[in-house]
């Protein structure tokens, strides 16, 4: 009988698997690279404009939500392609719905960014 690993060892392994998944996502998905670029842009803007703590919280939540949903969307696409590699209407609909979730989160994040930064940008003019 194999010795059971400690809770700490199992958690560390889980973090490593999650890190590897995030790294794979960043290396292979063009859309996540664009979203990370936007995340960096608004983060730099946040420091430049000295946004409030509440605005930082909203911004971080939006960034995390969009990136997380993009990861889930990618996982759904990989799973759908694994289950049914050929074109199938239902698989296509599943993939469209997953992409739609990312679109809704990204649209919401864009609106939050407009609310935070548009008045500041207008003041610069």
Automatic annotation (TrEMBL):
User: GO terms for biological process?
Assistant: phospholipid biosynthetic process
Q: Which Gene Ontology molecular-function terms are recorded?
A: ATP binding; kinase activity; metal ion binding
Give cofactor(s), names only: Mg(2+)
Q: Where does substrate bind?
A: 70
Task: Name the UniProt key words of this record, in alphabetical order.
Answer: ATP-binding, Cell membrane, Kinase, Lipid biosynthesis, Lipid metabolism, Magnesium, Membrane, Metal-binding, Nucleotide-binding, Phospholipid biosynthesis, Phospholipid metabolism, Transferase, Transmembrane, Transmembrane helix
Q: Where in the cell is it found?
A: Cell membrane
Q: Where does a divalent metal cation bind?
A: 29, 77
Membrane topology recorded in Swiss-Prot or TrEMBL: Multi-pass membrane protein
Which parts pass through the membrane? 57-76, 97-118
Principal localization?
A: membrane
Q: Name one Pfam family in it.
A: DAGK_prokar
Q: Which residues bind ATP?
A: 17, 29, 77, 95-96
The UniProt record lists the keyword DNA repair: no
Q: How is the cofactor bound?
A: Mn(2+), Zn(2+), Cd(2+) and Co(2+) support activity to lesser extents.
InterPro entries in the record, alphabetically? DAGK (IPR000829), DAGK_sf (IPR036945), UDPK (IPR033717)
Q: Which residues form the active site?
A: 70
Please provide, in alphabetical order, the Gene Ontology terms of the cellular component aspect for this entry.
Answer: plasma membrane
Similarity-based family: Belongs to the bacterial diacylglycerol kinase family.
Q: What is this protein called?
A: Diacylglycerol kinase family protein
């Amino acid at each position: 009988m194999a010795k059971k690993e400690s809770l700490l060892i199992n958690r560390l392994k889980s973090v490593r698997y999650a890190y590897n998944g995030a790294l794979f996502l960043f290396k292979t998905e063009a859309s996540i690279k664009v979203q990370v670029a936007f995340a960096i842009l608004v983060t730099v803007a946040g420091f430049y404009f000295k946004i409030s703590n509440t605005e930082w919280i909203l911004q971080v939540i939006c960034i995390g939500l969009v990136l997380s949903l993009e990861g889930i969307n990618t996982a759904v696409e990989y799973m759908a392609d694994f289950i049914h590699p050929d074109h199938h209407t239902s698989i296509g609909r599943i993939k469209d719905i997953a992409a739609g979730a990312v679109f809704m989160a990204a649209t919401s994040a864009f609106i939050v960014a407009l609310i935070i930064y548009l008045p500041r940008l207008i003041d610069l003019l």
